[in-house]
Amino acid sequence: MSATSLSASPARRRLPLELIGGWEVGLLLFMALLYIAGIFINPKFFGQPDAFSAVLRDTARFGVMAAGMTFVIVNKDLDLSVGSTYGLVATVFSIAFSTSYYDLGIVPSLLAAIVAGVAVGLINGIFVTVLRVPSFITTLTMLFIGRGLVLGLTGGKTISYGEKATQNGAWFFSIGETNALGFNNQIIIFILVTIVGMFVLAKTRWGYETYATGGNEMAASYAGIPTRRVRIRGYVLSALSATLAGLMAVAQDKGITSQYGQGAELIVIAAVIVGGASILGGRGRLLGGALGAILVTLIDKVLREGIPMTRTMKVGGVEMQVQGMAQLPPGAVPAFLGLILLIAVLIEPWIIRRNVFPRLWARLRGRPLPPVIEVGGVAIEGAQTKGSSASDRSMRARGPLGRFFARRDAAAIVLAVVLWVVGLYLRPDFWGSIDNTFNLMLSFTEVGLLAIGMTYVIANGDIDLSVGSVLALSAATCAFFMKQLGFDPWTAVFLALLAGAAAGVVNAALTVGFGLPAFVATLGMFYMARGIGAWMTAGRQLSAFPESFNLLGRKLIDILTYLGIAPTRDTLLYDLAAAVSVQTIFMVLVAIIAGIVLAKTPFGQMIYATGGNRRAAEYAGINAGRVRAISLVFSALCAACAGVIYVAFLRSFNPSAGQLRELDAIAAVIIGGGSIFGGYGTIIGALAGAAVIALIRALLSLQIILGNGQSLVMPQHWVNVFIGLILMVAVVGDIWLRQNDVLGSIRHFFLARRKSGANHA
Amino acid sequence: MPEKAPLLIEMKNISKAFGPVQALRDVNLRLAPGEILGVVGDNSAGKSTLMKVMTGAYQRDSGDVLVDGQPTHFKSPHESRVHGIEMIYQDFALCGNMDIAQNIFLGRWPRRGLFVDRRRMYAEADSVLKRLKVDVNSVFQKVESLSGGRQQSVAIARAISFDPRVVVLDEPTANLSVMATERLLETMAELKQHGVAQIIISHRLTDIFEVGDRIMVMKRGQNVGDRYIAHTNEAEVLELIVSGTPETALTADQALAAKAA
């Protein structure tokens, strides 16, 4: 969105500022200021002329990705997978090209990389359009699958081929070089892509179709625009630009690390939104995206470069000046980028549509205020899409078994039992033991706890992408206060829960108060919470906490022993207390309370009503905003509890705590009968779903002893890829089997055919 | 007919603007107990806006809304409900994921202690549906699996379970089959017998002429005429819709007097 189209009356449009677009000019001004600030803070880096070209060079890759992302966002979609695609493409190219792997020529390697990129785009597009899976779920899963693939393919190792690059395909690797004119060739590509993209989006049918689809998809499809194809095209363009960016990166580095492209999606999405695109679709310009990319990369650079400072130290009675850099710890930068993303998303609806600056200016001059552009309680959220009207299968169900299978959570319960039996069949020696059962319970506890909170949020028709990060934030808070500041465990636990609740309150304020879609608000928190956690602990692992705290993650017997009231050995009570852990008891308690509230009380009914039809709920006097806010805070609290338990159980805090857990929790709720569109979900189902996830993880990491005596364990990266696939299958299955009853329609179709066939005979 | 009971609802000189758009300008509306009033007019005539001002979904810029002669300032539809005003929305405003009984008691589920009293809820929902003579399989059926006509029956059942004095129906026949429309009109007549006043917003004059007592015509946010059904015909109403002006608007009584003269 540019300020031109909204704030200008015809008379004012002649002003030069309006002609070039006020938004872009503002971006340029802000950038110049930031650069000057950068020079002021860090003259060593930003003072050099090279720095300018270095910033542009690093921007080039993000700028290219922003071009593709602009199409997706204008289409009213979202692509969280660009960073993964970027890494995956670089990995595929490197593996194909590297002498230590396939050692292919430059052209086949490039082809392989492009095929991989296009495949990602097509898969994204088809899942979002044809299979109607919400875009953030599809591309978030693709993000994790891509990351798992990169780790799995590289085995976490660095690949480099500087030697081969000089002999083979020098023309390709020259992309990453500085040219005769003194700047990097990537900058030329960035400018070319931006110009071509601007032309396509502003002047061609493709661009017009994109704006129409994003503005009002239904109207566009009534007008004969193949909106499905337009949206798939957006995803393919986005994946292609990520492919190009990935290839630019390998051309520059002549090698990869397994961390390639991590977090790139955040920079790219923030760039496009900062560049003036609306997350609600239909608005956005490529030039804005490109400028946004420069701005966000610049901010990223300023944050990462750190401030040089001189510290005076006394060494052996002599004062010495030590040069040092005050730097943000690794992992903290996303906290700022997430914040920028959220602020940028809020600018369009709250500053521009409300004409805040012109109104302020008019008020200062005592002129009549220009009108607010949109009034009448227009929510900035997109319309809630429902699956479709389903036939009520429970009305056809007969007998207790039929009634059980008509339940939405039946599949999860059956699946959990089946998976357990499979485990027993594969490793009867190990699986059947009490120990293993309770170890399973442990991994189940974390997912279960997150899934309980997530059930509330999903039943409301919202989503919480931040649970894994909030878990990390609360774990970090707990560890930090105990270890660094020496707080006693209970205060630390209280503060950790407080931090989690605060994250939930921010989520709630952004979704309910500011009307952002829940996935955008919690996506911002996804980066912010983990970043703040990493910042607090300076990206390090913390361990060695008081034993009284660690008891939270121990078995019941340890507590009883600690308190000196342990039962004697070899009694049933002793065995039981030795088997059950504190966290499992806690999780079961939370589950029972949350389950009763959701199923039996008016508050639970309010949640289902809000998720089913928010407008109807509000007409009926339900404060839907309050219900949604409470659910989001509850979800964050559950995640915070899981974080505290994590630290107590592992006796240490690791900054990667809870990574991918949001995926597990969402998958658990969907498998357990929740609907991604809201209105459904039970605690029993979510727990069964969490059991399914825990069992799949356990099964996949089971050591299988092959016939020839070798044993086989699947690496964790591949397990994550598999969990991502499970989530996709669960969401697609929910939309098509539970809600649209595809099986029923197929049965009907064949029954009708048979009947008509019989009539013919 | 001229000698009337005191008015149930009276809206006087209502104005409402959305930014630069003047949606309502000095509109008046009168509704007697047990009366069925049809509100007609072109698109953008302000019919729905007027109803939303009445129920408190929108806040008026100026004018008065009197209920039983008392001035009111409803902040939300919830407050007008307390005064016995119920609105049935064009899309019925039901939660498809919940069953019929849960929808009838949406937002005011009967409780026992902390919990929802399910037995009472289903029993009372059943009796409301029986009173309406709606044939649904059971109160346990999910609303999204019902046809449009049945969904509307649920919406009406929900409205009358509040024992309202006024029911506002927004385009009630727009999404219904002929059969369902017939049944709806019967229901409306029955409600009238129970003394429930109704306001029906519709494009279909035939429906209003079948059950209505009075018809009010709006155009571009203003009153352009008001007639008793018994003393007018579709042609006259169409004439008003197309070429009526606020200056030539007559109230139903004035029109009757003019006709008699």
Automatic annotation (TrEMBL), chain A:
Localization per Swiss-Prot or TrEMBL: Cell membrane
GO cellular component, one term: plasma membrane
One Pfam family it belongs to: BPD_transp_2
UniProt keyword terms in alphabetical order: Cell membrane, Membrane, Transmembrane, Transmembrane helix
Membrane topology listed for this record: Multi-pass membrane protein
CDD domains cross-referenced by the UniProt entry: TM_PBP1_transp_AraH_like
TM regions (residue ranges): 20-42, 54-74, 80-98, 110-130, 136-154, 187-208, 232-251, 263-280, 286-303, 332-352, 410-426, 438-459, 465-482, 494-527, 576-599, 629-651, 663-680, 718-737
Keyword Membrane: yes
PANTHER family: ABC TRANSPORTER PERMEASE PROTEIN YPHD-RELATED-RELATED (PTHR32196), RIBOSE IMPORT PERMEASE PROTEIN RBSC (PTHR32196:SF72)
Main location: membrane
Protein name: Ribose transport system permease protein
Acetylation recorded as keyword: no
GO MF entry, a single one: transmembrane transporter activity
UniProtKB/TrEMBL annotation, chain B:
Keyword Transport recorded: yes
SMART domains noted in UniProt: AAA (SM00382)
Assigned keywords, A-Z: ATP-binding, Nucleotide-binding, Sugar transport, Transport
Domain annotation ABC transporter: ranges: 9-245
Single GO term (MF): ATP hydrolysis activity
Transcription among keywords: no
Pfam family, one: ABC_tran
InterPro entries, A to Z: AAA+_ATPase, ABC_carbohydrate_import_ATPase, ABC_transporter-like_ATP-bd, P-loop_NTPase
Top-level taxonomic group: Bacteria
PANTHER family the record matches: CARBOHYDRATE TRANSPORT ATP-BINDING PROTEIN MG119-RELATED, SUGAR ABC TRANSPORTER ATP-BINDING PROTEIN
Name of the protein this chain belongs to: Simple sugar transport system ATP-binding protein
Organism: Kaistia hirudinis
